[in-house]
Amino acid sequence: MSATYANDPMASDKDAVRFRIGDTASPWQFSDAEINYLIVEHGTALRAAAQAARQLSARYSNQLSRTVGSLHLDYATRARNYAQLADELQRQADRMAPGTVLTFGVTKSEKDGGDDDLYSVNRGIEIDLHRNPRQSSAAPTGTGALTGP
Fold it and tell me: I need a surface site. Which of 70, 87, 90, 125 has the fewest CB within 10 A?
């Protein structure tokens, strides 16, 4: 497994991910290829680090804690700590990421195109503000209605 860390998280996204999850020395948790995959898959180093922490939490949650002599390996605590780290990194990523805004509209030249324009804002729109579904069907409808061209 090829893994590197240049001690400069500002130099590369890979080093930034490693720095955030504490994977900065041997024995490595992830290979460079795995870190690069997470960056491509999740779009930013921060989101990739959150996913890496989730994967480490899952990895350690599958292992049994052990005591050998005076050495105690508590994998459950490690799994919880990585899960908390993943949550915190995800919160940071969500705060930093700008919201997605979807906009659409019609240019003046498109609107001036007339009925041939399939994207006309008013085409086929009818809003009947005064229609009351509780009234009898004999009641007039269309009063105050806004209609398209």
Answer: 70
